[in-house]
């Protein structure tokens, strides 16, 4: 048996073309070969395709038997902490790999449960001032971090005031020549001013300065000096110079510089942290809404016992009371209730469900009690969403990788620049304090933090907005690269269409008999067309036996009559009698874009059953929204080419690959990648490999684990129009990142020369440095896309949380 030239799959009836060498399994593979043949010379062998996929796989490798811990990390000070936390985790025996993210303050650790557990990993990461904890403590942790930051900011302002008062009353006037010089150096004034300043400044350095000094130590330990190093050196330089100046009889102490710089940095860090945590609110809300326990009903006595969710088994019956969340996915076996699924599906109104209906873990009962039977997967949709939100992806992608490399060099550069500035001022004949303060200004005014957070915070805000719009960003790369897509591939069935077959027409001498015969055979088949025919036919008592399945047909004995059902092309006119009206019905079905299925027995085709996979109402609008002069829109389908005219005739669709076998989709997408960055949009039903093989994958309305694993973004609702929103979000995110980087780079390019020239004093430098970071933070915080037509703020999010977060369990 020959194999396909493109995908290497075995083929019985090869397709050939005079214009290109080789044999192909389907029209799709042949079309891709034509596209590639018209472009550059590339290697499309199976080995080359798979090597490329493996080389570009950026997900964490999870060995067999290993588990993954998702931890929130308190105390992350900057991006340097990412590398340090990863090193701390990977030093532990039993840890395979770790990844940390400063933007989301999370760590993902793959470990061997036989060697180490999650608590031990959290303890290991809690060294040197960090605090690691799991999802169950997330909401409390976010609140405590914000509250502690607020406390430190107020404390910074309070502690700074006595220093400023002493300077305003006794030291600043001397600089203006208001008091005689001897006034400051009498024993009474000395005891009243300088000793309180020394003691108070020392306490402030110890209290407020600890996070900065710890951050500097951590960054130096991992060999990546950061902003904390610059601030620590600047503060210590001002403080130590002031001590030396006082004890050597100098007249220019700069304790105010050391204190005010620390206070401004503390307040700025709190504002930055508060804004950043707002972007993590969705994750905390979902985490806080998880259910940990359930009431299991005893099969005999109907008594209940409270058990951990992990101990639930398929078939267990769980009692759920009004106001509680459904513990796990399953179906109702007793009772009727209105169920609120807003936090999971986005459906605003509660849905009335009764016995036999499926329910999602995490949904809320608004009235009545029900009994739910645990499904075969014994999982909760809510828990899966939480895990997806906690899944840490590398933040050092795309432009951030370049920025990180630059930031590593930037801090040593500023240190050298500060030393050169101080030396230059001193060599030019200025006194030591002027030279030192010029160097301190250079250290303080520079802002590598704004460069470091420009990309991560913009991505975090984009992820927040996407989640608010019921889309999960599983890989931040999609936000940076989606706008560069040259080819956008749509899988037709289930994506551009509803994926639900419906009976349209039955043609034959006796339509009722044709439908009954077809349904009797199709009840043994699992094909979607078979399900549509079976659902449309009335119940039957006909005996069915000897079911057989061929390439494109199925057959069975129905009341001792062999009935054959299948694709009209499978019935050869030499072997079967095909009436003229049947041929006309087939032609009409293809012209109208429906699926004709022939039904035959006793040597003749007796009728045609026509079903339709209805296109989504807004599919054409969606395609138009993302159509661009520099993009090719491609549709993949296994349907006959005659049934794809509706999509092929759309002005935005460039290519339709019809008759594509499911296993060929992956290789077709690989071929399209040679034309540029390729984005695949599918529902995961039979296109998960294609989603994974594309440069970027978007899964629409998919509940399959394969699709979630393969995709870079998942649309949770059954909304195709969410796809243009993802493209818009990616475009705005890239623009926001550019704005942040231009500001951060431009700021440093302007203020560093001003600091070197002495125009900017240390105090002004501290204020400017804080403002620079806050501008980047506020710019990133701005909502990128509307939610339900409005740009929602933090208060809206909290209100939604209150409405949809009742107690998880109450006895």
Q: What portion of residues is helical?
A: 40-55%
- Broad structural category: alpha+beta
- Model regions low in confidence, pLDDT < 50 over at least 5 residues: 39-59, 392-396, 788-811
How are the strands ordered across the major sheet?
18-30-29-28-19-26-27
| SS element count, helices | 28
Instruction: Tell me, briefly, the overall form.
Output: elongated
Integer count of domains: 6
The oligomerization state is: single chain
Calculate Rg over CA atoms: 34 Å
Number of strands: 30
Largest sheet: 7 strands, mixed
Overall pLDDT score:
76
- Beta percentage is 15-25%
Q: What is the distance, rounded to the nearest whole angstrom, between the alpha carbons of the first and last residues?
A: 66 Å
Transmembrane segments: 153-175, 195-217, 229-248, 254-271, 406-428, 434-462
Subcellular location: Endomembrane system
GO molecular function, one term: ATP hydrolysis activity
InterPro entries: ATPase_P-typ_cyto_dom_N, ATPase_P-typ_P_site, ATPase_P-typ_TM_dom_sf, ATPase_P-typ_transduc_dom_A_sf, ATPase_P-type_domA, HAD-like_sf, HAD_sf, HMA_dom
Give a topology summary.
Layout: E1 2-3, E2 10-11, E3 15-17, E4 20-24, H1 27-38, H2 46-55, E5 67-74, H3 80-90, E6 95-101, E7 106-111, H4 118-125, E8 131-133, H5 138-175, H6 187-207, H7 210-221, H8 227-247, H9 255-278, H10 281-288, E9 293-297, E10 304-308, E11 317-320, E12 330-334, E13 337-340, H11 342-345, E14 351-353, E15 358-359, E16 364-365, E17 370-374, H12 381-390, H13 399-427, H14 432-445, H15 448-468, E18 471-473, H16 477-481, E19 487-491, H17 492-496, E20 497-508, H18 511-522, H19 528-536, E21 544-549, E22 553-558, E23 561-566, H20 580-591, E24 595-601, E25 604-615, H21 619-626, E26 632-636, H22 645-648, E27 655-657, H23 665-673, E28 678-682, H24 688-693, E29 696-700, H25 705-710, E30 713-715, H26 722-756, H27 762-781, H28 794-803
Parallel strand pairs: 19-26, 19-28, 26-27, 28-29, 29-30
Antiparallel strand pairs: 1-2, 3-4, 5-7, 5-8, 6-7, 9-10, 9-11, 11-17, 12-15, 12-17, 13-14, 13-16, 18-30, 20-25, 21-22, 22-23, 23-24, 24-25
Helix pairs in contact: 1-23, 5-6, 5-9, 6-8, 6-9, 7-8, 8-9, 8-14, 9-27, 13-14, 13-15, 14-26, 14-27, 15-26, 15-27, 18-19, 26-27
Family: Belongs to the cation transport ATPase (P-type) (TC 3.A.3) family. Type IB subfamily.
Protein name: Heavy metal translocating P-type ATPase
Organism: Haloarcula argentinensis
